[in-house]
Amino acid sequence: MVALYPERQSRAARWSRRSAIFAVILFVVAAVTHRLGRLDSETFLMTLGVVAALIVLSLCAFLLAFHRMWTRGDKVGTNLVVAGFFLFIALIPVGFLAYRGLTTPMLHDITTDTESRPLLSQVPNPTSAMNRPRAMSEGEAEEQLAAYPTVIGHSYTLPPERIRQIIVTLVEDRGWQIVRAFPEMSGPAATINVVAGSFLLGFPCDVAIRVTDEETMAYVDMRSASRYGGHDFGDNAVRIEQFFDDLDAAVLADAAMPQVSQ
Prior knowledge:
Layout: H1 11-35, H2 41-72, H3 79-103, E1 109-111, H4 138-147, E2 154-156, H5 160-174, E3 177-180, E4 189-197, E5 204-213, E6 218-226, H6 235-256
Helix pairs in contact: 1-2, 1-3, 2-3, 5-6
């Protein structure tokens, strides 16, 4: 007489699948809602903590289920395949941030002028979780200059008033929120303050763009600072470089346009 033993169904595999799927859905919904301005950044940060916990739970359950399948013959069905697929999706942004974190300095406030930074506008009703503007240390300045040697101010031969108009157009094209417009040029320099969003998750960043009148040319400096976290993963430097790339192109196009005689 042959004894038949019931196959053991892996509960760990089921939990791995459920946790991974829920983590991905929660992340996508929260990220989209945050980018649309329907979810505040601090609640979004707490949601990311829940997502991270779900990913860890799913990964641990995945490893346990795989071990028991290999050593005890537990039946996992398609649960591990589905869990592995969703875990891979969930770990893509984690891997990207890990890579950026290892290859960029731990800074959250980047500027083209480390000695006299453009002034940021004050955040209304700041919370304890937000970064507060402070003086840049010598060590931070050296780190930035070593990591981002191309993050420097640019000179233009167009009049400062025209440069300011082009900057405002570029800011509006990006969908950045203007919180303090350029004042009338009553002195050697004028600054516009805007709020931008981080590349991946849309966290708010405070940006200041300063135009200085140097008689024969206009000099533009820029500063970008993340409101949350001590590491911007290189986001602010990329924002500044891309803005100057577009500003350079816009100035060249403007200079090439034929002037209409009065």
